[in-house]
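Researcher: We are triaging several targets before committing to wet-lab work. For this one, the compound of interest is copper (II) ion. I'm pasting the protein sequence and the ligand SMILES. What I need is the predicted three-dimensional arrangement of the protein with the ligand bound, expressed as structure tokens, so it can go straight into our comparison scripts without reformatting.
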Amino acid sequence: MTSSRRSLLVGATALAAAAAVVPRGAQAAGGQRILRLQTRQIEVDGKAATRYGVAQPSGAVGLTLDEGDTFDVRVENTLKVTSGLHWHGLNPPWRQDGVPYISGPPIAAGQSAAYKFPALPVGTRWMHSHFGLQEQNLLAAPLIVRETEAIRSGRQEVVVLFEDFSWTKPATLLERLRQPMAGGMTMGSMKMGDMKMSMDPAKPDLNDVDYDAYLANDRTLADPQVVDVERGGEVRLRLINGSASSNFTIDLGAYEGTLLTVDGNPVEPLKASLFPLAVAQRADILVRLPGDGQAMPVLARGEGRTLQAGIVLRPPRAAVARLAVEGAVPGPAVGLQQEILLRAARPLPAKKVDRSVPVDLAGTMTGYTWSMPVHGMTGAPVTVAQGERVELVMRNETMMAHPMHLHGHSFQVTEINDRKFSGAIRDTILVPPRATVKVVFDADNPGIWAYHCHNLYHMAAGMFTTMVYRDFT
Ligand SMILES: [Cu+2]
């Protein structure tokens, strides 16, 4: 066994531990948890890769809390670079949001920072660096606040963090996207690998980066994580799209699952075998293992790519067939066909909108520059007052989809292309090419909040602004 192989196994065990039900007595009850930003070695295509990671001193990856817990964490930066962590989907006081230079200073190498606030809202959240392009170097981990109902159910839970992986440095990937090509196109619009090159500017552009691998809990399908489950048992999957710029479709193959939550927030249960999962979004899916005792693969298929990642749920004595790293056909375009079917299980209380804010999602294909002008003004923040019901009207004028994330608030999706509905509560919504999506939220968390596209390269190239409360202290 090589050392890289061993560290891979240690990593997998740690992930499994993070996903397991930990008895309350095993944790320092109410005590401060330590999360370390560190480097680690993973194995991709038989080669060792050194990347960033987040783990507790025990080796457990990320953090799992219970409903009612206080989020009481010290982040220790053991990296040689400045960094930090953002708690994606939690709504902390703004100073504790972990966005460098907006909510607070970044954490210098060798330094630490403490956070303490109620761990709300409950559900499947995640954590990642909001500093530079570190997220592409896998500086991300699950952050689960287990619902009392999920704990009481005694159901097995499996947490899966999907990520996109490249052997190329993130800065080089961004540089390449910005390089002009003949005919005014950029590398960003040139399809490589299993995609054909499209010179038609009216055609949607599914993805810009040609990744070398997709990972599920750090592993490719050449050597996937195999989780032992009960024959015919029920499993709650907590799926997190922690990739930098890849939308996925979760594919249960011949089986159906029941969607319980999106972005950690309950929806009216929806049965399907395919579930779109845009960058930064999460989905909790309840699956029942087949009565015939067969293993069940859970795949994440890349949008417009044959490349896929996944895990396998294995009942006792079930054979695990070899899974293809590349699927037979490219994964479907990720759109809002399922989104429009979702209904919040606990919608926002009815209230008239006090403020409607137009946000255009804009960009050019010629220089890889992106923007999100507010009221038509590029660089302007969204301004709100405490107590208002705010509506964001996001109109995508570009030919790429944008997974839009508002910090510090949970919003409800209320309208897609003029169709009104009582949609899901989310923190990240995909706005497809030429689409208009409306969301509403209550301005109840004063501060300065990041509001941006969660495609890392779109954000780095300008699709980022803030939401600012008037007169907050
Ligand atoms: Cu975008």
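Researcher: Any quick observations?
Model: Residues 1-29, 182-199 have pLDDT under 50 and may be disordered.
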